[in-house]
Amino acid sequence: MSSTLLPKEQQTPYQRWEMSALPAGNVAQFKKTERASSPKVSEGLAQILENARKEAYDKGLHEGYLAGMEKGREATELSKQRFLILTASLQEALRQAEENIANDMLELALDIAKAMLKTTLLVDSEKVLPIVKEAIRYLPCAQQPARIMLHPEDVKMVRLHLGEALAKDGWHIEEDGLVERGGCLVETASNQIDASNATRWKRINEALGQSGEWNCEERK
Length: 220
Prior knowledge:
- The protein is α+β, with helices and mostly antiparallel strands.
- The chain has 2 domains: 24-123; 125-207, ATP synthase, E subunit, C-terminal (hypothetical protein PF0899 fold, 2-Layer Sandwich).
- The protein has 5 helices and 4 strands; from the N terminus they run αααβαβββα.
- It has a 4-stranded mixed β-sheet with strand order 2-1-3-4.
- The longest helix is centred in the middle third of the chain and has 97 residues, at 27-123.
- The chain starts with 12 loop residues before the first helix and ends in a 13-residue tail after the last helix.
């Protein structure tokens, strides 16, 4: 740039703008103003950045909290379902165990009762009398031929205590070695009643929901 000053009318537009835009007397003042405003701009920018950082942090913290709560709820629900399944399985196992124990106790009781009954029938031959009475009670009018088949040892007892009454009603007492002591078979022309020990024991077991057998030789 030439240091010679030209009249205004002789200056080019660029020269006129440059000299008028940055007059020599105002350069120092411009730089002073710029230095004075720089700290304020820096402080303002720093505050904006700090506010933005804090806002981002709070937002991230809130979103993380919500996400954590949701995962916590999901984990809690999953644990709850697993606990319910485990509880149901435990209750079923306990119920099954109680049922098994009850069945085992009932089976044991029946085995004991069967052993005692077998012994009683061998020792006390009069036990057959109410069995015979119960059997013929369902056939009050005997249709000939009418037979009561008993073990040979029981025949003696029945004839001694019931022989006369049975004969009056048309019943014939017969020995049958295939009938176990304590039981009997009743036959008429149109009916048959199985009052053997095995059959009566089977009915008792069925009534109790069991399948125990008398384990004796049955009449074919």
